[in-house]
Fold this protein.
Amino acid sequence: MIKFFLMVNKQGQTRLSRYYEHVEINKRTMLEAEVIKKCLSRSKDQCSFIEYKDFKLVYRQYAALFVVVGINETENEMAVYELIHNFVEVLDKYFSRVSELDVSFSVSEFHL
Amino acid sequence: MPAPIRLRELIRTIRTARTQAEEREMIQKECAAIRSSFREEDNTYRCRNVAKLLYMHMLGYPAHFGQLECLKLIASQKFTDKRIGYLGAMLLLDERQDVHLLMTNCIKNDLNHSTQYVQGLALCTLGCMGSSEMCRDLAGEVEKLLKTSNSYLRKKAALCAVHVIRKVPELMEMFLPATKNLLNEKNHGVLHTSVVLLTEMCERSPDMLAHFRKVRQLSSSQLVPQLVRILKNLIMSGYSPEHDVSGISDPFLQVRILRLLRILGRNDDDSSEAMNDILAQVATNTETSKNVGNAILYETVLTIMDIKSESGLRVLAINILGRFLLNNDKNIRYVALTSLLKTVQTDHNAVQRHRSTIVDCLKDLDVSIKRRAMELSFALVNGNNVRGMMKELLYFLDSCEPEFKADCASGIFLAAEKYAPSKRWHIDTIMRVLTTAGSYVRDDAVPNLIQLITNSVEMHAYTVQRLYKAILGDYSQQPLVQVASWCIGEYGDLLVSGQCEEEEPIQVTEDEVLDILESVLISNMSASVTRGYALTAIMKLSTRFTCTVNRIKKVVSIYGSSIDVELQQRAVEYNALFKKYDHMRPALLERMPVMEKITTNGPTEIVQTNGETEPAVLETKPPPSGLQPASQANDLLDLLGGSDITPVIPTAPTSKPSSAGGELLDLLGDLNLTGSPVSAPAPQIAQPPFLLDGLSSQPLFNDIAAGIPSITAYNKNGLKIDFTFERSNTNPSVTVITIQASNSTELDMTDFVFQAAVPKTFQLQLLSPSSSVIPAFNSGTITQVIKVLNPQKQQLRMRIKLTYNHKGSAMQDLAEVNNFPPQSWQ
């Protein structure tokens, strides 16, 4: 099951966040900061799946933006990896050459 | 009031903020503006304000004051308002707020709206954050929508149904009839969501699972063949632009179907059989060049492993995993290692084939991969490959991150214990672990190692030599130093004499050994426990070494005033040993006997804890090796019979007054050791005067009173009857008399009956005698116990009557006993 879906840039600013389980608001910022720290410290050769607390993170980097999805054990990691890519492609089509600015400015459209 | 700014403006302004404080300021200003705008109940700009509020919420600022506004937006008729309102509801509200119940009516109306988009919004929101009350109320509507022909709505309704089922599992049956037709759709969206719904149902309830599996009359309504058919279409169909993802048709649907098949096929032969073909087909036809194909293959492999597939299929699956391992992409390797770990229990041999690749993964840079590879390597170690694997694992231990070291060390210990080809190899391996990762090993490694060393008698010299060399250079790793000091203490003579067959013997003098032990004692890096080990070792060496005894005495006496209480106690006791009990020292400090092998099945067995704590316990008190064979403490009475006890016990009886004769000594000895095996030796050595004094003056145990003399109550015709007394401290008016009848004639006395009578103020209880035959020539006795209750503490008097057969004739006698000692009744 997907727990959350984040898009965070390299400076740690959250561009998009969607939580599918309730998380306290102050915990959210902490969670996001920790998650992005882990992703930033990885090199390109390392694999895209990280174990964090009791769930797994699947992340993918697109230019300066990290898309991170938190999943639990029942989910197929590779399928989620593909899902991320699919999502980004959809955005690309919708915004025609999507960039980080689009993500920041069209938050509501993203959610729906 | 000027019109509130648009969302974009807000975002632009926030982006210009350079510090966190500036950003916060801007946001607070904007929040205040929004709040006043809400108070004015302005309909036109509400939507904009809520949108801004949502953005600020995403950045992490509190936005709960906007919840009611969301409700107002939902209630409005404009689509844009509704859209933002529902979005706000999804993000800001959840079951915990009471406000959400107000939404129920709105959602209900919207579910019946004419525009499908509005219906869709309502379904989305309900599916996202509906509480159980809301779900119960609205489940009927959802179910109705599940049956519509509009595929846009159908797929949303299916997802909403999933959420309803998660919240309120009892409603599952309600959705069952609707699911029958779901899979007949062409629309992939609907197919996908219906598969999710079915998966959720099957996972939640085994009844549902059985229901879906069973054969129904119309073959088209069976679930498994339906799924197989869909999957087949997906694979076989040509390029369809709608669903294509890098050359594969709708991989997400494929993965979902495979997962559902897995759940259906688990533990069920029929379903598994139906799936075999399609799984084989998917496994062979999917392209592996892109990640998509690999994702599908991964899911296929997991499914094959879980259902009751035929062996050919399983081999195929493991081969796929093997291919994954060789792939360059890290993700794939990680995924392969994870699934291999799951299957290694069942298909051990097949996984062994890939052992070398797995071992290579240990050297990978990636942390996740290394961890998986380590776990998998431990699972793969067996008797044949243990040497090679161990080499790799030790190398890994050297170079890995600290977070792995503890796990790796414990894993190596376990594996070495199970599969060690030889004792020397085992000891070498453990030593290597201790030297490389010494500070990360678990606490029970030290006693285990010590026990192992004592067991391998022939390796003592070799072991002690290697340990000595190891701590010569570096004595900071505590477990290593502990083991080494223990061994040096035990086998120091072997070390100094330089006899070692396995390795080149080194020349070590006694002084050098003492130097090392002293430096351990002094060093700041040594823990208190380690110092204890070192001090004990030095003490033991006093009997093993010949020329340095004075030095040892000096060291021990220095620590007699150490601040550490543990060390001080030890030192004082050892000092006493040197001074007063020098004659006992060699026997006390002699070599430890071989410890019994203990199983490592967890510390709950009493036997094991006894064994485990024995070495620990022995370290804390001066090891009276004779008194405490470190085997099970069960056979304590056997201990008494063992010859090793002679150093201590004989001194005790010699100073004991000859009070109650033989039995008392035995009783005392038994009780002594059963009472407290650990503390008994210590007081005997450290405070011997007390113990010996205690035996004479203080009653050590309640029911024994040393000091009441026994009397001869009757002595005639070769029959002698002795009375021995015990007073109970718990009940002072009870006297327990044990009579002993012996026969000094040449013939036995048979049918011996002893009867007694006492004055009225006493009460008498006669217990059964040991036998009724007194053998001749004093070769045996009859014992019988009499209990006399003497509440008034009057002088004991007794009349006894004896009847027996002797020399063929019946004898009978009466006598009076008056010579009771005063202590027996006062």
Observations:
- Residues 2-106 of chain A form a domain with the Beta-Lactamase fold (CATH 3.30.450.60).
- Helices of chain A lie at 25-40, 77-95, 100-105, 107-111.
- The interface with chain B takes residues 14, 16-17, 20, 22, 25-26, 28-29, 43, 45-51, 76-79, 81-83, 85-86, 104-105, 107-108, 111-112 of chain A (CB under 8 Å).
- Chain A has a mean pLDDT of 75.
